[in-house]
Amino acid sequence: MNRLHVDIVGKGPDLVMLHGWAMHSGIWGSVREQLARHYRLHLVDLPGHGQSPAWESYSFEEIVASVAEILPAESIVCGWSLGGQVAIKLALSVPQQVSKLILVATTPCFVKRDNWRWGMDEPTLQLFMENLQRHYAQTLNRFFTLQVNGSRDMTNVLAQLRNQLSQYKQPDSHALRAGLQILLTNDLREKLADVSQPVWLLHGENDVITHVDAARWMHRHLPHAKFIGFPHCGHAPFLSYPDQFVANLYDL
């Protein structure tokens, strides 16, 4: 298995940052400098994204295992969206390496189910999967637009997303399809009670990708959790409210 690319900056406790679907570690650019004053940041590119090499095949378990290989002992792990699910699994599978979790715009289950109303409609994600092969650029652009919906400054946040994504080559198409398959199938709800670490839940109140009530549900079901909501904010609170986002991470 190919080693992941990791940028390490700053001094202090180890803070590992995991991006979401179709992104890379450059997405943390708006908060990187401030966080590096307080933490030793490990900015990870997940496989097939950013500067990490593509794989022949991808699975959620293999992705988690690859991050575990580069995880310092007693790390604080911050995961955004899909990266948050990776963070949850790390806390369960290598608990000795994870001291705290920060889950940003994360949900234990991305898709609506009979007993879970705070997910996306499955046909919507299926359509993303189909359109990714036919209209790659348009599909990613649609996803970016969904991420900024509900933000107080949609134009600025969307420009940041596009600018940061363009820093590196496009994600591997197989990695993107595998990521969507993970979003379609992963359901971590029953495992949350086994997360023993303290968890901070940071979530935009207007998020249309991962509904804020999913974070409130996690707040109730995680043994040691704190919920922080960001008003007038979509799926990327670290872009809409960088100073407030950093302040909450300083207060761990």
**What sequence of helices (H) and strands (E) makes up the elements?**
EEHEHEHEHHHHEHEHH
Outline: globular
Estimated share of beta-strand residues: 15-25%
Mean pLDDT: 93
CATH fold-level assignment: Rossmann fold
Q: Write out the CATH superfamily name.
A: Alpha/Beta hydrolase fold, catalytic domain
**Unreliable parts:** none
CATH architecture: 3-Layer(aba) Sandwich
Strand order of the largest sheet: 1-3-2-4-5-6-7
Compact summary:
The protein is of the alpha/beta class. Helix content is 41%, strand content 16%. The chain contains 10 helices and 7 strands.
Defining traits:
252 residues; alpha/beta; Rossmann fold; seven-stranded mixed β-sheet; 7 strands; 16% strand; globular
Structure description:
It is a single chain. Helices cover about 40% and strands about 15% of the residues. The protein has about 250 residues and is α/β, with parallel strands linked by helices. It has one domain (about 5-250): Alpha/Beta hydrolase fold, catalytic domain (Rossmann fold), CATH 3.40.50.1820. A seven-stranded mixed beta sheet has the order 1-3-2-4-5-6-7, sandwiched between helices. The protein starts with a strand and ends with a helix. The mean pLDDT is about 95.
